């Protein structure tokens, strides 16, 4: 008696709905590096697309602000039209109306985006640079170097970041540099601890053991292999910290620790200036507050999407 055999089937390609759930991913991700695979997943993630569009719009507006308005920021040539109980609203000449000082509000909003971008990027770059250096030293050298650096990081982490930034800005004085330094220093322990933990995890990898067995110098293993494989989460954290930096810049300006020049447009200072005119012109506070919230949301969405794309446990 001959028993009929089932029809021959070729290798599974991920298109068979009865196959394993990971088949489609094997077809999509086969042969791709970590960063190329992450880029492919980012392009398919609606959250990443929305966040990227918000960030792109913010950056473009900040760069081309002088070409989007015919007025200068901080100009008070319309101060005679403003009274303690009345602030002119939108008009053909002023799309968003005037602020309490008689400046064009639309111009102030555009140049406020530029200031927020500069403060956020410079402070995050400062924190990333110093934090990366400390993280490499702690995770690469270990021993007493790791102990000393991590105890200093623990002390800094025990202080709320905004309180630490306020303390540093108050000591350095009221200027733009003090804001960027204060926020950057407050971010250093975050990057240092994250990179150090990532490097310690990579140190246990088989490729490190193989390189050590081949007699490759420890410094070359750390710089050439461990560090490149550990820096991904740190870059993602930098994107998330940009959102935090923009909010903290506004907070420091709101507390009176920001730029002292009244001609410099900055969203946090605009919130401060709008407090005594909120009943007469609530848009003076609502517009910069909305801009801060949307910009921070864009960086947060993009950062979270990048974290998911680079984390193999959350691939989808």
Beta strands, count: 0
* Poorly predicted regions: 8-27
Query: What is the CATH T-level topology of the domain at 99-314?
Result: MetI-like fold
What is the CATH C level class of the domain at 99-314, in words? Mainly Alpha
- Distance N to C terminus: 48 Å
Radius of gyration: 26 Å
Mean pLDDT: 80
CATH architecture of the domain at 99-314: Orthogonal Bundle
- In DSSP terms (H or I, runs of 4 or more residues), the helix count works out at 12
Helix-strand pattern, N to C?
HHHHHHHHHHHH
Strand content: under 5%
Q: Approximately how much helix is present in the residues?
A: 55-70%
Largest sheet: none
Instruction: Assign the structural class, choosing from mainly alpha, mainly beta, alpha/beta, alpha+beta, or little secondary structure.
Output: mainly alpha
What is the general shape? elongated
**What's the CATH superfamily of the domain at 99-314, by name?**
MetI-like
Describe the structure.
The structure is a single chain. This protein is an all-alpha fold. The protein has a domain of 216 residues: MetI-like (MetI-like fold, Orthogonal Bundle), CATH 1.10.3720.10. It contains 12 helices and no strands. It starts with 22 loop residues before the first helix and ends in a 6-residue tail after the last helix. About 6% of the residues have low confidence.
């Amino acid at each position: 008696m001959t028993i009929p055999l089932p029809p021959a089937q070729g290798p599974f390609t991920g298109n068979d709905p009865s196959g394993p759930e990971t088949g489609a991913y094997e077809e999509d991700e086969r042969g791709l590096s970590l960063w190329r695979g992450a880029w492919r997943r980012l392009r398919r993630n609606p959250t990443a697309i929305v966040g990227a569009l918000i960030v792109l719009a913010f950056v473009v507006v900040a760069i081309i602000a002088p070409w989007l308005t015919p007025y200068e920021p901080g100009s008070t040539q319309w101060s005679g039209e403003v009274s303690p109980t009345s602030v002119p609203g939108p008009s053909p000449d002023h799309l968003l109306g005037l602020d309490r000082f008689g400046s064009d509000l639309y111009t102030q909003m555009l140049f406020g985006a530029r200031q927020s971008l500069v403060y956020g990027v410079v402070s995050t770059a400062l924190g990333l640079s110093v934090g990366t250096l400390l993280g490499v030293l702690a995770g690469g050298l270990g021993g007493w170097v790791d102990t000393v650096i991590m105890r200093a990081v623990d002390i800094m982490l025990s202080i709320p970041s905004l309180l630490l930034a306020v303390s540093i800005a108050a000591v350095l004085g009221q200027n733009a540099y003090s804001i960027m330094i204060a926020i950057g220093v407050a971010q250093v322990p975050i990057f240092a601890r994250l990179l150090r933990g990532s490097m310690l995890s990579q140190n246990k990898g088989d490729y490190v053991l193989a390189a050590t067995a081949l007699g490759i110098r420890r410094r070359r293993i750390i710089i050439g292999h461990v560090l490149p494989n550990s820096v991904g989460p740190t870059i993602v954290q930098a994107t998330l910290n940009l959102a935090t930096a923009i909010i903290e810049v506004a907070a420091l300006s709101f507390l009176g620790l920001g730029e002292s020049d009244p001609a410099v447009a900055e969203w946090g200072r605009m919130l401060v200036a709008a407090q005594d005119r909120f009943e007469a012109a609530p848009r003076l506070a609502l517009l910069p507050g909305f801009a801060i919230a949307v910009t921070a949301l864009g960086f947060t969405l993009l950062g979270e999407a990048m974290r998911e794309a680079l984390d193999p446990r959350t691939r989808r």
